[in-house]
Amino acid sequence: MAHHDRMVLNRGQLQHLQPFVFWVVALALTAAAYGAEPAGDLTCGRIGIHGIGHDRLSAVQGAPGLAMWAEIDGYLLACGDGEVLHGLAEDGLVVDALWRGVDPESLFIVRGGHPGDSLEPMPGTELLASGGPFTVLRATEDGARNALDRGEVSRHAIEDGHGHGHGHAGCGRPVVLPLDGRHVLARQSANAPPRGRRTFGPDAAAAVDAIDGDRWFADVETLAGWNRHTHGTEIALAQDWLIAQFEGIGGMTVTTQSFLVGGTTAQNVIAVRPGTSRPEDWILVGAHYDAISENPSIAAPGAEDNASGCAGVLELARVSSTFTPEASLLFLCYSGEEQGLIGSAAHATRLVDDGDAPKVQLMLNMDMIGYTGDADLDCLLETETQFASILDPFVDAAAQFTTLRTVTSLFAFGSDHVPYLNRGMPALLTIENDWDVYPNYHRTGDLPGSLSVDMGTQVLRMNAAVLVQTMGAQPEIFADGFESGSLTAWSSTSP
Fold it and tell me: In degrees to the nearest 10, what's the CA dihedral of 162, 163, 164, 165?
């Protein structure tokens, strides 16, 4: 996976706060700033909001005297009148850090880089809060503020050339935005606004029960046995094995798509199962099978990144094969992801060129789904604002069929869902929310023994429920009575 770096403060684990390293990729925030224009020095507090619920969270965010805030998973970085923050603490909220005399123009939102990048800390900054892929920084020196204003947050370039931009921004100079209003950057589903919840039909429930975590893990072990560096020789062995696995499932046409990564010809593996009554509605399930490490000429096993996601594509293909799809299913394993989302971009571009992009009802991307750093099995669901409604079925499936805690973000970045979003197709990423503290990220030590079968199984159970429900004729049934056969019409409620 080519994603982003952050200093983690979620899951109530402040012990993760330490001197940090990061590089910033492009960020195009669309959340509207509102509220009072901050003036003068502020008091900023980091408030724990883990699972407090929408009503209480709204009351906190609407407290008179707060000039700006950023909601990031289990934390709210709130700035304003010090007395307001004192009152919130007296009301029982945990304010675990406090900064006084903060110049509002010294605060910046940063979207971080790769955990595996060896970058030096930026002098003259202080981390105030982080979670999901986001960090809020305070520039403590004029030089640091000027650098942040220019988007310069590291004196190093990306070392292995696989950084990706957010949305349409691409891989150019880093971009940092000021914390100039109120922003929901990453939200726990437990703190989301109330809405009607869907129940899932018997086929979806049967698909959930059919997920075999041990089978998934065995596939991870097989894929991790090869050096799957895009420019290496063994990735062809993984490609041939994937083709054989899809052909063995039956009922699918398996092809490859060639494209160039530098001077190397790489291949996407594509398995298509046509729909019966809605063949022009396409559901895509994808993950990258290439890998990277600090020494890819020696080894790039990529068990977590991303044999876990690619094996998940195979598992969903097997499970869904026992049900009749009304919509067409496309199962894709991409190469060239670590060099800049090249394989998924090639496929998304081909869909546009062939006039097939409007057929895509959903693109489900799995990247790094098998690691957890603790007993909290948390999963990040990520898309863009215009497709916010596609998150809801996954949140509901997780609540009904899994032990996952879900977090949602409307700022897509750094994985194979982005090329589809950039071309107007609904897409989302499912990724375990501890990827950023995975100690073997982009290392030769990214081996299967670091993974949790339970974590991978729970993510696949969630995804299987939504996939089978969406591909079939059975309408989605809501607690509020609303029904639809289209995933993109399930809800317009933002996460």
Answer: -160
CA 255 remoteness from chain centre: 28
| 69, amino acid identity | W
Which residue is associated with the tokens 């990735």? 235
pLDDT digits (tens, 9 = 90+) for 286-338: 999 999 999 999 999 999 999 999 999 999 999 999 999 999 999 999 999 99
CA distance 324 to 472: 7
- pLDDT digit string (tens) for 150-208? 877 653 322 222 333 333 333 334 457 899 899 999 999 999 999 999 889 999 999 99
- Per the CB < 8 A criterion, the answer to whether 330 and 222 are in contact is no
Look up residue 130 and give its two tokens. 């982080």
- Strands 95-102 and 75-80, sheet pairing: unpaired
Burial of 17: CB neighbours in 10 Å, binned 0-12, 13-18, 19+? middle
Q: How far apart (Å, rounded) are the C-alpha atoms in residues 460 and 316?
A: 7
DSSP secondary-structure letter at 423? T
Distance CA 139, CA 490 (A): 43
Buried b (16+ CB within 10 A) or exposed e, 428-442: bbbbbbbbbbbebbb
Instruction: Name beta bridge partners: 177.
Output: 109
Query: What secondary structure letter does DSSP report for 303?
Result: I
Contacts of 424 (CB under 8 A, 6+ apart): 357
